[in-house]
Amino acid sequence: DTGVSQNPRHKITKRGQNVTFRCDPISEHNRLYWYRQTLGQGPEFLTYFQNEAQLEKSRLLSDRFSAERPKGSFSTLEIQRTEQGDSAMYLCASSQSGQYYGYTFGSGTRLTVV
Amino acid sequence: AQSVSQHNHHVILSEAASLELGCNYSYGGTVNLFWYVQYPGQHLQLLLKYFSGDPLVKGIKGFEAEFIKSKFSFNLRKPSVQWSDTAEYFCAVSGYGGSQGNLIFGKGTKLSVKP
Question: How far does A113 lie from chain B, in Å, by closest CA?
């Protein structure tokens, strides 16, 4: 198992463009989480899935953000009409429900909106 | 509101010095507590966790943390730091029980260890 994989590692986009990130969790993990981290801050929760169901969304997740996990495996996070304030590291993590061993994080996707 | 406060933004120590990083939380109800570490250029890794039982928790690489419920604290300690401990350390809290959907992180403490 290679851990949690995120692609791309870096993304530079122009303001107003749409971007999509992908996360592949550890295969036996049924929970998948998205976090956002900006400079000088800890990770901030965005949303999480248990299997294909999106169970919780943060108020940080505006209407321009959407996340999916269609088959309960990989997940995508899309940001529409990007703004400069969206520039951040987007982190994905996975875990197994019922036995809380803590999350396994991916290396993140760094988004820069210019 | 639920929150985690880490007292120090940046700590600079010499090798072999003792380390204590403060963490206080505000959370209604029983909690799970975590310390994560992020080495330069690497992803977040779990250092140690507390769910229940012995409030003194031992983690990897000689780290330990003590949960003091009356003080809402979960401070991280290491008796003797090494240059390789240079990293950013994050304290985090979640609710206890089945719906652990959401970890709340502190802002992190950057530790620099001088050789």
Answer: 21
